[in-house]
Write a structure and sequence with these properties.
about 375 residues, alpha+beta, eight-stranded mixed β-sheet, six-stranded antiparallel β-sheet, 14 strands, about 35% helix
């Protein structure tokens, strides 16, 4: 019955996303930066049922924040509205108008994405020096997100500036590739895991927005993809701009050795960990924990991913091999929304598949809600 309901929901959203035991190539739309910001979502929103989008946003906020939490974050979102920079503010306003969703809810959802993204990212160099980059994006409300995931060709002057994978109504960028330049994925950086720490993050983000002029952690990659042209300038900017939430920026370039994990505090980078193929470090795996510390015992995706990558070997690594690693439990989870594979040196490799092929035997999150890591 649940599977039938999910399939019916996907059909009403405007396309049949698939059933369990299938992967589906995400739909692809154009996000035109030459269009006025308040109308940039119009071409995409028309592919979805507005009432179901309203239900999706409401369910997302209700399930993960509860009533008191919603009141607090909507208050913060409402206060943040005037200081959200252009063009993001106008884009959110346009999306809210096009869908009938409250603007404060749209802002709150964007904040939610900044704090609750659980992922595995891999950047690797093959024997020919080509850089490959892959990621799983994991989230709690997985069935709904699979149905609003899409590939976005962001254009300006009639040309593709970068390609990314996003969710409907999300103005930031968690996965993106600049053709012949670099690629970026964003993984959240875990705290101690309690709800208390999550709310502490929210309040610190509030202070960073209002007092420090910080950027949303997901806005910064978009700015970098729009404005920078090479791996080294991307690393520099991702390392120095103040952001509202601690994250990891995983970056791949187009030249040998151009791969790194930027471990971010709110003010600046705490660490930048580079590929070093000459000394055997031909790949990097980042989940949601500092690479110099052990992962949480109940969420160890890193060690299995490392073993799987070593089994592949540098002589055989490519996009397909990384996809297979990302498709192997426990790296691949019931909470995996999509898998993306890319190589900036070969832009045609960019692909995102929404994942309906996991037998749901695992809980997306620990059973004890207080154990949810953020």
């Amino acid at each position: 019955m649940c599977r039938i309901l999910i399939l019916m929901v996907t059909m009403v959203f405007g396309y049949v996303a698939g059933q369990h035991n299938h992967t589906v190539v995400a739909p692809r739309y154009t996000f035109d930066l030459d269009t006025p910001p308040e109308h940039r979502w119009d071409n995409i929103v028309k592919n979805y049922d507005k009432k179901l989008l309203q239900h999706f946003i409401g369910k997302t906020l209700n399930d993960y924040l509860q009533k008191d939490g919603i009141n607090i974050i909507e208050t913060i979102a409402g206060a943040a509205d005037p200081i959200i920079p252009s063009p993001y503010r106008e884009e959110m306003e346009g999306f809210a108008k096009a869908t009938g969703i409250k603007l404060s809810d749209v802002i709150a959802l964007n904040l939610q994405y900044d704090f609750r993204t659980f992922c595995t990212s891999i950047v690797a160099q093959d024997l020919n020096g080509q850089i490959w980059h892959g990621r799983n994006l994991d989230y709690g409300f997985v069935d709904m997100l699979r149905n609003v995931t899409f590939i976005s060709d962001v254009t300006k002057g009639g040309k593709v500036l970068y390609t990314g994978t996003s969710f409907i109504g999300f103005s930031g960028c968690l996965t993106g590739m600049k053709p012949n330049g670099f690629s970026i994925t964003v993984d959240s950086r875990s705290s101690s895991g309690s709800k208390t720490d999550w709310w502490k993050n929210i309040l610190e983000a509030y202070n960073a927005l209002f007092l420090g002029g910080a950027s949303f952690a997901s806005f910064l990659p978009r700015e970098v993809l729009e404005q920078e042209t090479n791996f080294h300038d991307a690393i520099e900017r991702l390392s120095t701009r103040q952001i509202v939430a601690p994250v990891y920026y995983i970056v791949g370039g187009v030249n040998p050795g151009e791969g790194a994990v930027v471990t971010r505090d709110r003010v600046k980078a705490k660490d930048v960990w580079y590929l070093d193929p000459d000394n055997g470090r031909w790949f990097l795996v980042e989940t949601n924990y500092d690479h110099w510390l052990p992962p949480r015992k109940n969420d160890n995706r890193r060690d299995p991913a490392n073993r799987l990558m070593n089994d592949v070997g540098q002589d055989k690594v490519d996009g397909n091999a990384i996809y297979d690693v990302l498709s192997t439990p426990p790296v691949y989870r019931s909470a995996t929304v999509y898998t993306s594979i890319m190589s900036a040196a070969n832009p045609a490799t960019y692909e995102t598949r929404t994942r309906y092929d996991f037998s749901p035997t695992l809980q997306p999150w620990p059973a004890n809600d207080d154990d949810i890591s953020i």
